[in-house]
Design brief:
The complex is a heterodimer of chains A (about 120) and B (about 375).
Chain A: E1 2-5, E2 10-15, E3 18-23, H1 25-31, E4 34-39, E5 45-46, E6 51-57, E7 61-65, E8 70-75, H2 78-81, H3 85-88, E9 97-101, H4 113-120
Antiparallel strand pairs in A: 1-2, 2-3, 3-9, 4-6, 5-8, 6-7, 8-9
Chain B: E1 9-10, H1 14-19, E2 23-27, E3 30-35, H2 40-49, E4 51-55, E5 60-65, H3 69-73, E6 89-95, E7 101-109, E8 113-118, H4 123-130, E9 136-139, E10 142-148, H5 152-157, E11 171-176, E12 179-184, E13 193-199, H6 203-211, E14 216-218, H7 221-230, H8 257-262, H9 268-277, E15 281-288, E16 299-301, E17 307-317, E18 322-330, E19 339-344, E20 347-354
Parallel strand pairs in B: 1-3, 4-14
Antiparallel strand pairs in B: 2-3, 4-10, 5-8, 5-9, 6-7, 7-8, 10-13, 11-12, 12-13, 15-18, 15-20, 16-17, 16-19, 17-18, 19-20
Helix pairs in contact in B: 2-7
The chains are: A alpha+beta (about 120), B alpha+beta (about 375).
């Protein structure tokens, strides 16, 4: 298992050709208090850069863009009822999706933890 | 002083905001705190539950001197000022010849002169507009802070005891740590509170003195916007502008009877006609049924999908506990309880027309 990061401030915990996807602590802090989350459903497929969800904070609405192509295996629907959990545990319980990757080679375009830390520094 | 440089201006409290952790943004040409470390929702709730302090020094403070100030101001505004008692403040607006609103403002009768407070983004326009009157128009270079929330009376009267005696929309001069300051009991949050005009050179010291009070925290523009939205108060440039009339915007309460009957202000033809026959559209509260906030620009449709209006302000109401919006809809859809749809990101989301405000106003009358 390895964790990858996108320039859109998503994290992916990858296990073979599946991954858990969420937004980083840095992104959650920048958004401020999250008040609304809208998710895709299991079975939905997406290409890289497709909009795969919406996160709104007290400040603004932000779209979530797919860091690579894949399919939603499971959406963390409790987030829609408790959007504030995104601020509490963005890199843990407040994951957004479990996904199946179309092509694991697409991971090579993403950052590892050190690269992401440098990216947000 | 006119604006020359494109660099945003700083209020006398700028360094204090930075010291207090304010996240500074350019707002209408001024560097202002959008929020502090506590965040927008916490600052919002602080105002509803205790009190918070806002820097509103970017707003324009203007003094009018001369003869017949009230009558002359009435040629620009559709409110009455002739019977406005000394020490009382009144909400009003400048109307344009087409019956739209050029800006909204607060006018206070200060005995031998009037004091006006106008929006930051409209300062220059408003001063030029006032200079068409045969009056002395003085832009006052002072700081302005707002202390808002149910604990405001205890906080302000701990420094200026007599301020406790002011009622809503009353104003006067008070001694604050030896500085003469104008204090008015009003605000832009729906809560009890005060706006305090301070000499620039004493602004930091007096603000710090207030902030020593355990019930007072600083708050930024983010909370100011969510508070006024819940309270159903219009934001100039969003909910009212040069195209919207006071009748459409439900601001007829600010036009006293003589003005509604006799006119005599810019745009009276349209405004009196709308008073008699009803406007084409009305500003209403719109409550989304789901959790998705409907922000400015979202279109409003009727149950058949016809576009009937649009959202002018919207977001999440921390006290209301859900999304809150306001916007204009065609008059036939403006009745309280009307079901409408909001077109958000290509989806049609159900919503209901409600009577503003979302959170009851709590003034000290």
């Amino acid at each position: 298992m390895a964790t990858y990061y996108s320039e859109e401030h998503e994290w992916l915990l990858v296990d073979g050709d599946t991954a858990t996807l969420g937004i980083t602590k840095h992104a959650a802090e920048a958004l401020g208090e999250v008040v609304f989350v809208e998710l895709k459903e299991a079975g939905d497929t997406f290409d890289k850069d497709d909009e795969i969800g919406v996160v709104e904070s007290v400040k603004a609405a932000s779209e979530l863009y797919a860091p690579l192509a894949g399919e939603v295996l499971e959406a963390n629907t409790p987030l829609e009822d408790n959007p504030g959990s995104v601020n509490e545990d963005p890199e843990g319980n407040a994951w957004f999706y479990k996904i199946k990757l179309d092509d694991v080679a697409e991971l090579e375009a993403l950052m590892d933890e050190n690269a992401y830390k440098a990216f947000i520094a | 002083m006119s604006k020359i440089a494109s660099e945003p201006r700083k209020t006398p409290l700028f360094d204090l905001h930075v010291e207090l952790g304010g996240k500074m943004v350019d707002f209408a040409g001024w560097m202002m705190p959008v929020n502090y470390a506590a965040g927008v929702a916490a600052e919002h709730k602080q105002v509803r539950e205790k009190a918070a302090l806002f820097d509103v020094s970017h707003m324009g403070q203007v003094v009018l001197r001369g003869d017949d100030i009230a009558a002359k101001l009435e040629t620009l505004c559709p409110s009455s000022f002739g019977k406005l008692p000394v020490g009382k403040s009144r909400y009003t607006f400048f109307t344009n010849p087409a019956g739209g609103i050029m800006d909204d403002l607060i006018v206070t009768n200060a005995h031998d002169h009037f004091v006006l407070v106008v929006n930051a983004s409209m300062r220059e326009q408003d001063v030029a507009h006032l200079r068409t009157l045969d009056l002395e128009v003085i832009e006052v270079d002072r700081s302005l802070i707002a202390i808002q929330g149910p604990a405001s009376e205890a906080i302000v009267s701990s420094v200026a005891p007599a301020a406790a005696d002011l009622k809503f929309m009353e104003a006067g001069l008070f001694d604050l740590l030896g500085a003469e300051c104008r204090i008015a009991r009003l605000g832009y949050t729906g809560e009890d509170g005060y706006e305090i005009s301070l000499p620039n050179e004493r602004a930091v010291e007096i603000t710090r003195k207030f902030l020593e009070h355990p019930d007072l925290e600083p708050a930024g523009l983010g909370a100011r916007d969510s508070l006024r939205l819940e309270a159903g108060l219009c934001l100039y440039g969003n909910d009212i502008d040069n195209d919207t009339s006071p009748v459409e915007a439900n601001l007829v309460w600010a036009m006293q009877k003589a003005r509604r009957e006799n006119g005599g202000f810019p745009g009276a033809e349209r405004i009196l006609n709308e008073l008699a026959n009803g406007p084409q559209r009305r500003l209403v509260g719109i409550k989304p049924e789901g959790r998705a906030p409907a922000r400015r620009g979202v279109e409003v449709a009727d149950s058949d999908g016809n576009i009937i209006g649009s959202i002018t302000s919207g977001g999440f109401g921390p006290t209301y506990g859900g999304p809150v919006s306001m916007g204009y809809v065609a008059t036939e859809h403006a009745a309280e309880g009307t079901a409408v749809n909001l077109l958000i990101r290509g989806k049609s989301m159900p919503a209901t027309v409600i009577k503003l405000p979302f959170v009851a106003q709590n003034y000290k009358r």
